[in-house]
């Protein structure tokens, strides 16, 4: 029997692949040394990839945020297999678009396998939604009290506390699919505070009331 010590290691454990049917939070990191993702032109490349790959059978991208070297995604998937197939297609679109924009003839874009965590209860889904849409506030790269992060799907999100009256919604088609999960689409559920700053371990220790405006 071959020694397991000879196997290559990844910073993302295989146990991170959830057996799921519903909502999951996905984190996707790019390789070190590649350009910063939070620029207007790079974001447009990503948005086109999101729009083209946001939905396929059993898979839907429902929210996202773009950070300097990683992406946070909220995905609805009917199974582990549907998640894997949907993410594979989305990652290929993103990698091709970025390599073309960066004028790289070839080369991997992503640092590792994506990390995925199933979020199943109402409490977990609320926290995941707040964590993804307000992630730029956590990193200190967005602080406007009146507008969502422009490098996220927040401008298309209709569940901000107070509605969209003071938020400029883009005229172009949304780069995310409509949410089907009961908790993500329930109007009384979605009163997300625009100014909430997720903590470093928001899913484990932040009180639920801190995430949403009463």
Cα(first) to Cα(last) distance is 59 Å
Average pLDDT score: 83
Order of helices and strands: EHEEEHEHHHH
Class by alpha and beta content: alpha+beta
The neighbouring-strand order within the major sheet is: 2-3-4-1-5
- How much helicity do the residues have? 25-40%
Low-confidence segments, given as residue ranges, are 1-18, 203-210
CATH C-level category: Alpha Beta
- The tally of strands reads 5
* CATH topological fold name: Alpha-Beta Plaits
Identify the CATH homologous superfamily. Transposase IS200-like
**Strand proportion:** 5-15%
Silhouette: globular
Largest sheet: 5 strands, antiparallel
Q: Which CATH architecture?
A: 2-Layer Sandwich
List keywords for this structure.
alpha+beta; 29% helix; single chain; 214 residues; five-stranded antiparallel β-sheet; Alpha-Beta Plaits; disordered N terminus
